[in-house]
Design goal:
Layout: H1 4-20, H2 25-32, H3 37-46, E1 50-53, E2 56-59, H4 61-84, H5 89-100, H6 105-114, H7 131-135, E3 144-146, E4 155-161, H8 166-174, E5 182-187, E6 192-196, E7 199-203, H9 205-210, E8 211-215
Antiparallel strand pairs: 1-2, 3-8, 4-5, 4-8, 5-6, 6-7
Length: about 220
């Protein structure tokens, strides 16, 4: 499938099913909010991507396969834009929508491998695994990852800090959290606590996500 509008509708059906486990035809067309949305749904039905039973829209096997790949590309694009390129959150989704259409399977697998086969997007939604994830050893972890990906007891060295808030960067710097500093994750719940020398520092999730580290 190459038509962006049809891909966007498949993506919307997937996300609606995640939220409610069922997709009503009228609500889908309303949420799509594009001229010709009803015709798009008709095309998806005619081409055997979806089927409509009473008022409910369901994926066919063909549609499920395509939607899964579209969602995978989009959410990996979000991770790349967020984790590596530090794109602002308010433009991240629209940027990912544009970016995902340029990704083929080979590039998608390369991005997934670069990011260490992430299991969720920045919003916490699941990223469908690909063949590259199945081939990867389950114990392989990203080379560089946010503090939120560490396990309790992990020792790591700060590689860089990605934040759009200068006051947050100043605060972290004042606490001595700088690139090259070694830390150990003491606990994950109810808040992230890291050990730096003899000092323990509590971090909320938003700040912990900004600190990227390399395991040592």
């Amino acid at each position: 499938m190459t038509e962006p509008g049809l891909e966007e509708m498949l993506e919307l059906i997937w996300t609606m099913k995640e939220d409610a486990d069922k997709v009503e035809k009228d609500l889908l067309i309303k949420k799509m909010n594009l001229p010709g949305a009803e015709n798009m749904l008709k095309t998806l039905t005619q081409e055997d991507f979806v089927k409509i039973t009473d008022t409910r829209v369901e994926f066919t096997n063909k549609g499920m396969t395509d939607a899964r790949l579209i969602i995978r590309r989009h959410r990996l694009a979000e991770r790349l834009l967020n984790d590596v390129l530090a794109v602002k959150e308010d433009t991240m989704d629209s940027s990912a929508c544009k970016f995902e259409h340029f990704l083929d399977e080979e590039v998608t697998a390369s991005i997934c491998t670069l990011l260490g086969h992430p299991v969720s997007c920045p919003h916490g939604k699941a990223i469908p695994p690909g063949e590259c994830c199945g081939k990867a050893n389950k114990e392989i972890r990203p080379v560089v990852m946010p503090v939120t990906e560490l396990r309790s007891g992990d020792r790591a060295k700060i590689s860089y800090i990605v934040t759009r808030y200068h006051e947050r960067l100043d605060r972290l710097s004042s606490m001595g959290l700088l690139p090259g500093v070694q830390i150990r994750l003491h606990q994950r719940q109810p808040t992230y606590v890291i050990q730096m020398g003899e000092t323990q520092i509590a971090l909320d999730t938003a700040i912990a996500r900004d600190i990227y580290v390399r395991l040592v």
